[in-house]
Amino acid sequence: MSPPARLVGDGVENPANAEALAEAARMFAVPCGFRDSRGLAAHLPDLSTVTTAALLGGADPLIAVDNTPGAESVYRAGPLRGRASIVVGNERRGIRPDVLRAAARTVQIPMPGRGVNTLNVATAAAVALYYLLDAHGRRQARAPRPESHRPTLLLAAPRDHVEAGSSLRSAAAFGWQTVMADDREKVWFGTPRPIRAEARAAARSHRNPLRVVPAGDAWSSRAGSRVIVCAPDVDGPPLHHAKLTGSSTVLVIPDGDGWEPPPDAEFARVTVPGEPGRYRLVTGIVLAETARQLGTRTVTARRPPRRGLSYSSMLGHTALPNTDLVHPWELTAY
Ligand SMILES: C[S@@+](CC[C@H](N)C(=O)[O-])C[C@H]1O[C@@H](n2cnc3c(N)ncnc32)[C@H](O)[C@@H]1O
To answer: Are 209 and 146 in contact (CB under 8 A)?
Structure first.
């Protein structure tokens, strides 16, 4: 059977992102090619390339995945009927205009976050493939007042600094303002972060930082909350059938099997037709699905919490020691 799609990276320039993109394609058992306008092949000799003529003149319709004005929501776009070339773009400039003009459809992943409005390119590809190729029988999205149902997020034992950083970028872009991290592999706290020169001016604004709280300080106070562990290798309903929302829910995304879930934990499985992908791809899919279930924010006057503080609002209000403030300009480096 021929694959239902192919993934194309248009002008991707970072070789590490190109490798992550190829892994996103393997997760969904589809081929991956690159229109290499940025010299990627010099770093990756086995790179599979696509010419402009083959990309624009091929038989498969093009689906551009980018956050351009007017693009339709990926949550409503799939699953696709028939084969397509699914295109993602350059880390800074996005998809080139010739592809945007030729595309049969342009889809975006809605970004409710304040300050970070794009995902890492490979993460975006994994999220798009999840909704365009699969995720049948999804739970109904909820409205109104989605913010009062946002679960607490725990990134459990990430094993790599860049994967943790990309996952935090996704969390901020999908609207989390506080994230707990169990950093037992010591990949985040105290580790130097890349700093991009052009971001220094933006740093002065100090707007909308993401608060990253060490789980050790906060986890002990989770009494009464529901814990749901989302991973590719757990026994449980598919992610998009499980309820991922609720103010007293703690959403845990472990990296590998080194993290022991509590005995009362529930599980949701990240099902993909191919190989399990790296951490940023899994966290991207889980956070996208949680954001989809939360629904779109409607603008209403802010109401005070009805009874005491939920677990997540407790995290937001307590001056927990060792909280790391990560600024949007830093997150877009991942
Ligand atoms: C980091 S984005 C940069 C370009 C982007 N147009 C911008 O506003 O800066 C790199 C690529 O990742 C994909 N991407 C990232 N976030 C996305 C989103 N929210 N919706 C759709 N595609 C996204 C797109 O393919 C995009 O070309």
So the answer is: no
